[in-house]
Specification:
mainly alpha; 2 strands; elongated
Length: 244
């Protein structure tokens, strides 16, 4: 049977603990030596036993390796400190630049509003006047451009409405002429057939005018035979008119 896995905890038995320390120490020193030879690495190993006894191994001199370690560690710490100081200083300079720029913009804004002008000289006032003239000219040009665009849009809408109005007018004229022609056709047809019943004129917006009949007594003076028949009928002239 193989060896079981050793539980990693403090060995309570002193003898067993001492034996394990000796074996593991020898193995660790052997591994350090192999690492230095195989990989050409500078290795320094320091071990203190529970009794305070020192065991060490070094591929070179242990003291030189320790000095190299200390110098490297302190240099790294100084580099980190220098980096943080440099970064802090850079942020401070950036903050100072932004603060100066902000104050300058505030002063310029107050000057444009006509405030704190007593501290300005003649040249500065002339420069401020030029800036105001330029801003006023640009604002006028922008306003004029917007007004022209609005006028063009209104003219475009006006032309569109005029076109729609013209089409509607032409359509009404065509419908009116067609209704008038139909009405005249009906009247001429009625006159040709000798229809005694009058045709009422149709409204202009009616597509097909319809003739209407007058119910009741009606006397027509254009036909002599109608008058003769009426006289012969005597009192029945109302019925004759109805039958007509």
């Amino acid at each position: 049977m193989g060896r079981g896995r050793v539980e990693l905890k403090r060995i309570e038995n002193k003898i067993n603990r001492q034996v394990t320390f000796s074996k593991r120490r020898s193995g660790l020193l052997k591994k350090a030596y192999e690492l230095s030879v195989l990989c050409d690495a500078e290795v320094a190993l320091i071990i203190f036993s529970s009794r305070g006894k020192l065991f060490e191994f070094g591929s070179g001199e242990v003291c030189k390796t320790l000095e190299r370690y200390q110098s490297y560690r302190y240099a790294s710490q100084e580099t980190n400190v220098d980096y943080h100081e440099t970064e802090t200083q850079s942020w401070y300079q950036e903050f100072f630049k932004l603060k100066v720029k902000y104050e300058s913009l505030q002063r310029s804004h107050r000057h444009l509003l006509g405030e704190d002008l007593g501290t300005l000289g003649v040249k500065e006032l002339q420069q401020l006047e030029k800036q105001l003239d330029l801003a006023l000219s640009q604002s006028r040009q922008t306003k004029l451009k917007l007004m022209m665009e609005q006028i063009e849009e209104l003219q475009k809408n006006e032309r569109h409405l005029e076109e729609v109005n013209r089409k509607l007018k032409d359509k009404l004229q065509v419908e009116g002429s067609s209704s008038t022609a139909i009405q005249r056709c009906w009247e001429s047809k009625s006159m040709a057939e000798g229809n005694p019943l009058p045709l009422h004129p149709c409204p202009a917006n009616a597509a097909y005018p319809e003739p209407t009949l007058q119910i009741g007594y009606y006397q027509h003076f254009g036909r002599p035979e109608a008058a003769t028949t009426t006289g012969a009928a005597g009192e029945n002239n109302v019925m004759v008119g109805w039958l007509r």
